[in-house]
Fold this sequence. Notes:
This protein is α+β, with helices and mostly antiparallel strands. The chain has 2 domains: 1-28; 53-329, Neuraminidase (6 Propeller). 15% of the residues lie in helices and 35% in strands. The strands form 6 sheets. It has a 5-stranded mixed beta sheet, with no helix packed on it. The protein has a 5-stranded mixed beta sheet with strand order 6-7-8-10-15, with no helix packed on it. The chain starts with a helix and ends with a strand.
Amino acid sequence: MRRNNLKLNSTLSLAVICLLLLTCACQQMPVPQTAQAARPREEFNQRQKAAQKKETYLPPSVLGAIRDPAINESSGIVASRTTPGLYWTHNDSGDGPYLYALDERGAGRGTWRVAGAKALDWEDIAAGPGPTRGANYLYIGDIGDNEERRTEIIVYRVKEPTIKSSDSSATKRTPLTTEQADVIRLRYPDGAHDAEALMVHPKTGDLYVVTKVSFANPSVYKAVAPLNTTGSATLQRIAGLSIPSLFGGMITGGDISPDGSRVALCDYVDGYELVLPDARIAFDQIWKQPLKPVDLGKRKQGESIGYRLDGRALLATSEGVHPPLIEVVRR
Length: 331
């Protein structure tokens, strides 16, 4: 019995020694190259997923419907700077040079005729600085060109009216009138383009136009402030965008956040956002950032997107009579 115990103990000891040697050998064996490469990729993907989750938007909610029947092709939206909590919109081609003020539930807060302006194909509206220091300006983009025949496009710049409660009675039949608009004439450096997205940087006043291209990559064009109002200026092509959509680059609206750190774009169905990773980086580096999809909800034909004045949410409308006013809040 004792001999058998000794034999068993020797066998166990030998097994333990072999196990220890095998463990040491495994620890010293080099990790396959694919496994080494997979580890940082996995860590990077986890960081990216965490960042995307942090930057995601809540599901879209309908704040109300645009009640004014005169607004039947809402093609742009921008938050008022003079009257916080209100918004400006306008119709697509076929309407006159009218701006419509809305509250956050879609109720009309007045109609203005833009003095000195015509409406060939208004497609978007933006807000930004202008020639008078400290004043707020609206920029209306007469930039549509479905047949790509225009030798120049026009952007109207007008001082933003302060919206009073008594202005709600002003309609398209009895509109108020803005101050005289400046006429900014622009040409593309490479021929005519159709475009529906106009943006103005809130600090520099630089103007941006994003072209609308079916099943192809759109281009970003820039006019550097101060903007010429005495002749025609040539835009600079500064970037191309790859839109993650089956529709390609059919961009129908855009806006720059009030702090100048974000860009929102939309097509007929979806929204997209680009974000500067660092406030110290030059703004035009934003066009190199990845486009993050944003769900804008159900829109019949989405052609407008704009930031809320605090920059914490996006607003969107749609063409058609009494379209929904949609808000998407960032987490």
